[in-house]
Amino acid sequence: MYNAQEVAAAGECLRTARKVSIVSHQRPDGDAVGSALGLALALKAAGKQVVVALADGVPTTFRHLAGADEVVSQGDPSADCRVFVDCGDVGRGGSAWQADWPVDVNIDHHKTNTRFAAVNIVAPHAVATAAMLAELLPAWGFPLPVEAASALLTGILTDTIGFRTSNVTADALRLAADLVDRGAPLSELYFKALVERSFEALRYWGQGLSRIQREGGLVWTSLTLEDRRISGYHSNDDADLVGYLVSVRDAAIGVIFVEQPDGTVKVSWRARSGWDVSDLAVRFGGGGHVPAAGATVPGSLDDVQRKVLAATRALLNA
Ligand code: AMP
Ligand code: MN
Ligand code: MN
Predict the structure, then answer these.
(1) Taking the CB of residue 154, how many other CB atoms lie within 10 A of it?
(2) CB-based neighbours (< 5 A) of ligand 3, an ion
(3) pLDDT in tens, 105-140
(4) Could you give all domains of the chain from N- to C-terminal order, each with its CATH number?
(5) Ligand 1, CB cutoff 6 Å, lining residues
(6) How far does the centroid of ligand 1 lie from the alpha carbon of residue 11, in Å?
(7) Using one digit for the tens of pLDDT, what is the confidence trace for 26-66?
């Protein structure tokens, strides 16, 4: 399932490097943080100097993970091995990495990956980049300390929404079980990553839920700058509300529109099995997976909503 040559080349790059620079995507989710920290902690345990860079830092939800405090905002292009994890294209690093800086190793599971590095390990069937690393790191000869196992398990938990996505296989569960065997505290990590939320996030959900709309299998809502002001919620994301839109009975696709301060709208799609929203996201300049994709679209909330809903309806009616 992996290309043996690419796996060997990536292992070589990591094993021979003195200093490793790791970047993951802007607005990081649990897999971005978990795979970056899991890789970093395993490499540090092997005596490497490692710098983890995330353009937007580590969200509160994942600050309990070891190494979160040492994350910086800029990668190091002079490192011996420059690695991207969980990024479909080099631009996903945002301000942490200039697009013309070379990347040695790209480890990712996005179907839309552009293979931008010298060595590309891309596995669209993998449930999370963290799941790939749980398999690859021991195979490369890097043992997983409990802190690394915990970070990787967090990536698996968040990308599978607690093992609920349709791509979860027995092999994925075995990889997770292996991390639990290494000491990762499953229920504690699950609670931190997927259950616990701020009071403000629930108030923010309330704003979005009060305007939820449905048309056949399409369910959508929006979140505005004003919603964030009213609720006291301070991030420019959807606080994971989109996953609940598609939980509506008979829904096929859920879409959320999050107004941004820079005149763009962050669009997130979630689809039930049988629907593929990744191509739709690519058409709007984004990317993602078959059941979960996103894009940042320039324009007013009303305009973006009109265009995106029209295209999503067309997909549902095709
Ligand atoms: P989100 O809608 O942000 O929760 O993201 C869902 C999936 O789509 C994740 O796997 C993201 O990595 C991917 N994604 C979201 N936004 C973008 C974007 N602007 N470009 C490429 N991929 C994206
Ligand atoms: Mn991600
Ligand atoms: Mn991922």
Answers:
(1) 30
(2) 31, 86, 128-129, 159
(3) 999 999 999 999 999 999 999 999 999 999 999 999
(4) 4-194 (3.90.1640.10), 200-317 (3.10.310.30)
(5) 25, 88, 92, 268, 286-289, 292-296
(6) 27
(7) 999 999 999 999 999 999 999 999 999 999 999 999 999 99
